[in-house]
Amino acid sequence: MSGQQRIALFIDGANLYATTKTLGFDIDYKRLLKEFQGRGLLVRAFYYTALVEDQEYSSIRPLIDWLDYNGYRVVTKPTKEFVDSAGRRKVKGNMDIELAIDALELSPFIDHMVLFSGDGDFRSLVEAMQRRGVRVSVVSTVTTQPPMVADELRRQADEFLDLSQLASRIGRDPSDRPQRPMNENGDRPRPQPRSPALESRYGIRQPQDDELDI
Length: 214
Description:
By secondary structure, the protein is of the alpha/beta class. Helices cover 33% and strands 22% of the residues.
C-alpha cells in the first residue's frame, strides 16, 4: 500500500470566486490540480456551483464543461427563484448540503480533505470529518478587510492555507492568455459584456473565449 496521503479537494465555487476576486487574481485550474497532486494521491477534486437553467446560453458553461473533462468532478444544480417578505425577487443556489454529503461519503477513503471555502457554516462538517480521522485544511484568506474566512472555521481546521500565498502557484498568469485576433480595421474586438448578476450570485468569473485554458 502506498504511503502517500489520500487527498480530496472540495471547492465551493461561489466562495472561491469571491475570494480570488477580492485578492485580484484568477485560478488556473490545471495548476491547482498539479499543486495538490504533488502533495499526495489526489483521489477526487470536486467543484460545486449553481447554474441558471432558463437562460438560452450561460457564459460559465464552457468553464464548467472544461472542468468536467479535465480532472474535476463538477456538481451543479439549478437555482431557485423566490420572493422575499418585501416582495423582491431573489435567486438561491446554495451547494453546502451537496458538498457535505459528498465529503462524509468519501471520508473512509481519504486521509486529507482540502476545503476551498471560508463559509462558517462548514465548521460542523470539518468537525465531523475530523471525528472520522480525516485531516482538514481550509483554503481562504485573512489578508482582506474583513477576512474572507469565518473565524470559527479557521479555528476548527487542522491547517489554514492562505490563498494569497498560493497565488503564485495556482494563479493564472495573464501573459498565458492568447491575444485576441484583430479585425479588419486592425483593432482587437472588445470582449462581450459580462453579467454582474451572474458573477456575484454564482461565484465564478465568466470567462471570455480566449481565457479558457483548454
